[in-house]
Design a protein that fits this description.
With 627 residues, this protein is mainly α. Helices cover 33% and strands 8% of the residues. The protein has helices at 41-46, 50-64, 98-104, 130-143, 151-176, 199-216, 224-227, 233-248, 258-277, 317-321, 338-343, 370-375, 440-453, 457-470, 490-504, 511-517, 546-550, 569-575, 602-606; strands spanning 4-5, 15-19, 32-36, 193-194, 300-304, 376-377, 381-382, 392-393, 409-410, 421-425, 428-430, 435-439, 530-535, 576-581. Strands 1-4 form a two-stranded antiparallel sheet. Helix 4 (130-143) runs antiparallel to helix 5, helix 8 (233-248) packs antiparallel against helix 9 (258-277) and helix 8 (233-248) packs parallel to helix 13. 52% of the residues are buried.
Length: 627
């Protein structure tokens, strides 16, 4: 269906934003000026010069490349509705975000006015309006070829702009399916664009842009010192492979057309081989993935670069992961749900309760996939911070020096050596670690999924096997094969891969998209739960009881609890008990099936003509999958 509309883009008159930083990986500067496009004259002149083009490109990077997780979850972004797109069964984030709860049906429900991913604040700030980002790309793609730069430089810039436009439209398609499609600079005197194109049309544009990006960036090599985060051929190739996997997945392919999976397999095989031939390798130690940066991180493919010492280049990720006893303020998004804790297999790769290792519900951390130890800070576990390699984390209710207690914390995104400043305040500080949006492990699991869906179980296992080897999972007895030996069918492997993604990408904001892409979100049942650690004999009146015993300090200043052998069950259970809790008395998960494609909010609809709501939503007539 073709719909003509004067839509929300009327609010998005083309703004050419010039950032104050030259490098595309140094883009968190707020000082910039606006140069309106008056019939293309000013814009055309801007794209004659490398310097002004680079400055313009910096701002597009700043707006388009995803930020460190939870940096976007503020009231000024999407009117505070960003939590809708972070909601999943992985963590306890919904307990602190009403829109995440509504998205999962835990409390309330979403209405037509709630989803604001496309943006409705009508400014050019990051997260303000996706169509401003698209407009910037459209202007560059239109005017760079007409400008005075060398052909080589034109291709270098165009390759990046095509990628950034593709990524923006891809993210919009993941949320809405079909969206308004505009590929030309916007004339402020005649702002008329087509209404919602179908999902197929959007994917066609995204793939075309990525093909151009791959072509234009052939042979372009960025140096880490001044080019970290810039788009290259490998990044564009890997995104194209991911896009094709999405197009083949149930969200967009409910009838499971096999030719889509075959096409996706070819693209993902090519992406993996290019990554490998480009020197990409899994980082040997899983815990180091978000501790190594630049050329030292052989796994990172697409990153957003940060710095703790350059103004407006930091983030608060370190603070959000740490406990109060280590200068932190643990974010609920970094608190594991019981489902995530249970998802980790045992040391031999087999699910809990099977294989060579017995599972103990009380001593739940024992004999688990080593990624569990690298990720979860459970009560009494070793969590090196601030240079203390023997530091232990205590999570029992009332623990000294703790507030905002969690039954389990997330170790990822924290540094062993003390950062310049744990907090990102006054536009400085934090640990400066890069956000890794795409890494080799994801390319491998994407390849594994496509291989499995086309009947190549061996290749699917090969990819997962390499990831499990890196995780230090044991091969096990003959036939165990890192827990893969019992897998003999496509259905079994499909379930294993989805679970593997949940573990491998814990707290990396992949779970929401995976549940939607595979149409598993509406199948979630049960309660949102986590764990709580209690003292067997908690304080009573003026008697501290077990708390006093555990926190008593010896002559060397060491607390009694830090000398406990928590691996001995009798010792552990003498002082601690763990229970499963569902905070807030929320309802069980209940996601309507029509939520796989959200609808545009009322401001978007009312500012346009015939911007039809998505089927399933109030007044919905637009089918995103209809050609």
């Amino acid at each position: 269906m073709k719909i003509y509309a004067t839509n929300i883009v009327r609010k998005a008159v083309l703004v050419i934003a010039i950032a104050s930083s030259v490098s595309a990986c140094k883009v968190n500067e707020d000082d910039f000026f606006e140069l309106p496009d008056r019939g293309g004259i000013d814009a055309a002149a801007l794209f004659d010069a490398e310097g002004s083009t680079q400055l313009h490109l910096n701002r597009v990077y700043d707006n388009v490349i995803p930020q460190f997780i939870y940096q976007d979850n503020v009231s000024s972004t999407m009117s505070g509705r960003y939590g809708i797109h972070l909601a999943s069964d992985e963590n306890m984030f919904p307990a602190g975000d009403q829109y995440a709860r509504a998205a999962l049906g835990l409390q309330g429900s979403l209405g037509n006015h709630d989803v604001r991913f496309a943006g409705n604040t009508y400014n050019h700030a990051s997260g303000g309006n996706k169509y401003f980002d698209i407009a910037k790309c459209n202007a560059a793609i239109k005017f760079i070829p007409e400008g005075k730069m060398s052909d080589a430089k034109k291709k270098e810039f165009l390759g990046q702009y095509h990628f950034l436009r593709a990524l923006t439209y891809f993210e919009l398609a993941k949320v809405y399916g079909g969206v308004p499609l505009t590929l030309e600079p916007i004339d402020p005197n005649n702002i008329t664009v087509r209404g919602r194109a179908s999902a197929r049309q959007i994917f066609d544009v995204v793939l075309s842009d990525l093909d151009k990006s791959i072509e234009y960036l052939e042979g372009i090599v960025w140096q880490d010192a001044n080019g970290r985060g810039k788009i290259d051929k490998l990044i564009a190739t890997c995104l194209k492979a991911k896009v094709l996997m999405y197009w083949a997945s149930p969200q967009f392919n409910p009838n499971n057309e096999q030719d889509r999976w075959v096409t996706a397999l070819d693209a993902n095989k090519a992406a993996y081989e290019l990554a490998y031939n480009s020197g990409k390798r899994l980082v040997p130690n899983y815990a180091d993935i978000f501790r190594l940066e630049g050329s030292a991180n052989t796994e990172a493919i697409l990153v957003r670069s940060y710095s703790s010492t350059i103004e407006r280049r930091g983030h608060d990720g370190e603070y959000r992961a740490r406990p109060a006893s280590a200068q932190g303020g643990a974010h609920q998004g970094f608190q594991a749900s019981k489902r995530l804790l249970d998802a980790y297999p045992m040391k031999d790769g087999n699910p809990r309760g099977s294989g060579a290792y017995a599972y103990d519900e009380v001593m739940f951390w024992q004999n688990r996939d080593p990624r569990f130890q690298a990720t979860m800070a459970y009560n009494g576990s070793v969590w090196p911070l601030d240079g203390n390699l023997n530091r232990r984390q205590w999570n029992y209710t009332g623990a000294i020096n703790e507030s905002n207690l969690r039954g389990v914390y997330n170790k990822r995104f924290t540094s062993i050596t003390p950062p310049t400043s744990v907090r990102y305040q006054n536009n400085l500080g934090g640990n400066g670690m890069d956000w890794i949006e795409l890494r080799l492990a994801e390319v491998m699991l994407n390849y594994a999924e496509c291989a499995n869906e086309t009947g190549d179980l061996a290749t699917a296992k090969n990819m997962v096997r390499e990831i499990r080897k890196r995780a230090k999972i044991e091969e096990g007895a003959s036939g165990n094969d890192y827990g893969l030996g019992a897998i003999s069918s496509k259905d079994q492997m499909r379930e294993l891969i989805l679970n593997e993604r949940m573990i491998e990408f814990a707290f990396e904001n992949k779970r929401n998209s995976d549940l939607r892409r595979t149409r598993r979100m509406h199948l979630l049942t049960g309660l949102m739960e986590t764990i709580e650690v209690l003292l067997v004999n908690p304080p009573s009146g003026n008697n501290p009881r077990d708390k006093g015993v555990l926190e008593a300090v010896d002559a060397n200043g060491v607390m009694f609890r830090d000398k406990l052998n928590i691996e001995d069950k009798a010792t552990y259970t003498k002082y601690f008990q763990t229970r499963t809790v569902s905070p807030g008395n929320y309802l069980p998960y209940s996601v309507p099936e029509f939520h796989y494609f959200y609808t545009f909010h009322n401001d978007f609809v009312n500012s346009g003509i015939d911007i039809q709501p998505t089927i399933g939503w109030a007044g919905g007539t637009f089918d995103p999958l209809a050609d």
